[in-house]
């Protein structure tokens, strides 16, 4: 048997990693400024993370959701406190796509409707409704296209208002910072506007924080950058989807559901979601985020990164927030990205915008690491 060939692969075979350093099977060292699609939030093999998982393995790794698991309650309480989302309930699953599936399903249950509003260049996953709400026809199979999704441009107030007035929609799903799409953002005024219109028309507002959450933007969630001036707090989504940085490499995801939604037995379910190892990995991440003050670090280093980027004339635009940043050039970056790996031994990311280089490192990097990145970038541009 061979592997089903769906991934274009670089000729690098990582065998060991620590922090942002990765070694391949030849002993060559690389610097990881991409974190495997923003997954590595606290650094590879962080000692606290490794210790917690090893200890949990010695006790119990898994049992189903048919029994008590106090780790789930501990995680929900800590996540609520650190994120400022204590008026939400947690449902755990295994991935970002699954999180968005459950978010959209909850919205449909809640409203009795099925149509969805999503946005141009969105990416919400590769399964059923999640991929239907993803603006990429190439990964949307005919079976997925049965879902009714309307794609609108970000920050187009008039079209959004005309569309939602039809009262046919169960949900609006939006990334506070688009990941795969290329780091575009809704303005605060637009985010406030869609939140208001969703309330008026009883449509569920879903904030997809799969990539932008867990401190990456310099706030726990990226939507928290957008203040609701009437209530003196951030815009409040009905459901928040999470994954990627949540487990620092352990497959885990979830949704935060506002406590105005009422649960019932069987409404949602999962075999592996919320297992003992997943909870332990997630708790370890939160513990490190809090102890090492990594969200503040992400915010501060985002400012420093922009200062360094502004010194390179070939960079035409800097997008994103915190340590979720894109560098836009006036040429396609695929060759540049390859040279960064081959010549400078540095991992970076691409986007649907082929002229954008993505920078998504662990949140505990330093100014020295950023200096190394720009030293390498200058050599190849």
From TrEMBL:
Coiled-coil regions listed: none
Pfam families noted in UniProt: Aminotran_3
GO MF annotation: an example: pyridoxal phosphate binding
Family assignment from sequence similarity: Belongs to the class-III pyridoxal-phosphate-dependent aminotransferase family.
Protein's UniProt name: Acetylornithine aminotransferase
Taxonomy of the source species: Bacteria, Pseudomonadati, Bacteroidota, Flavobacteriia, Flavobacteriales
Superkingdom, taxonomy of origin: Bacteria
Matches recorded under InterPro entries: Aminotrans_3, Class-III_PLP-dep_AT, PyrdxlP-dep_Trfase, PyrdxlP-dep_Trfase_major, PyrdxlP-dep_Trfase_small
Cofactor(s) of this protein: pyridoxal 5'-phosphate
Keyword entries, A-Z: Aminotransferase, Pyridoxal phosphate, Transferase
PANTHER family xrefs: ACETYLORNITHINE AMINOTRANSFERASE, MITOCHONDRIAL, AMINOTRANSFERASE CLASS III
Gene3D superfamilies, per the entry: Aspartate Aminotransferase, domain 1 (3.90.1150.10), Type I PLP-dependent aspartate aminotransferase-like (Major domain) (3.40.640.10)
Listed CDD domains: OAT_like
């Amino acid at each position: 048997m061979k592997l089903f060939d769906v991934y274009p692969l670089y000729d690098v075979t990582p065998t060991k990693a620590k922090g942002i350093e990765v070694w391949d099977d030849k002993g060559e060292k690389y610097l990881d400024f991409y974190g495997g699609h923003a997954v590595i939030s606290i650094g590879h093999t962080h000692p606290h993370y490794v210790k917690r998982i090893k200890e949990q393995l010695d006790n119990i790794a898994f049992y189903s959701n048919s029994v008590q698991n106090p780790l789930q309650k501990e995680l929900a309480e800590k996540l609520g406190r650190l994120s400022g989302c204590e008026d939400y309930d947690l449902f755990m699953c295994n991935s970002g796509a699954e999180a968005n599936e459950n978010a959209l399903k909850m919205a449909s249950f809640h409203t009795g409707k099925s149509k969805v509003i999503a946005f141009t260049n969105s990416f919400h996953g590769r399964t059923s409704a999640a991929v239907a709400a993803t603006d990429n026809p190439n990964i949307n199979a005919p079976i997925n296209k049965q879902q009714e999704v309307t794609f609108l441009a970000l920050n187009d107030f008039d079209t959004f208002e005309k569309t939602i007035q039809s009262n046919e929609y169960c949900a609006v799903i939006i990334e506070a910072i688009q990941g795969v799409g290329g780091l575009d953002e809704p303005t605060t005024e637009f985010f406030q506007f869609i939140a208001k219109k969703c309330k008026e028309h009883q449509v569920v507002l879903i904030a997809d924080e799969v990539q932008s959450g867990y401190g990456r933007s310099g706030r726990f969630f990226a939507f928290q950058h957008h203040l609701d001036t009437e209530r003196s707090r951030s815009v409040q989504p009905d459901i928040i989807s999470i994954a990627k940085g949540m487990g620092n490499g352990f497959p885990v995801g979830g949704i935060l559901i506002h406590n105005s939604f009422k649960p019932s037995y069987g409404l949602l379910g999962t075999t592996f979601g919320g297992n003992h190892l997943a909870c332990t990995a997630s708790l370890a991440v939160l513990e490190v985020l809090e102890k090492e003050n990594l969200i503040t670090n992400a915010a501060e280093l985002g400012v420093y990164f922009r200062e360094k980027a502004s010194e390179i004339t070939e960079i035409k635009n800097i997008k994103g927030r915190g340590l979720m940043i894109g560098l836009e050039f006036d040429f396609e970056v695929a060759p540049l990205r390859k040279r960064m790996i081959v010549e400078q031994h540095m991992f970076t990311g691409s986007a649907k915008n082929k002229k954008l280089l993505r920078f998504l490192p662990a949140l505990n990097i330093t100014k020295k690491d950023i200096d190394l990145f720009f030293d390498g970038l200058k050599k190849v541009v």
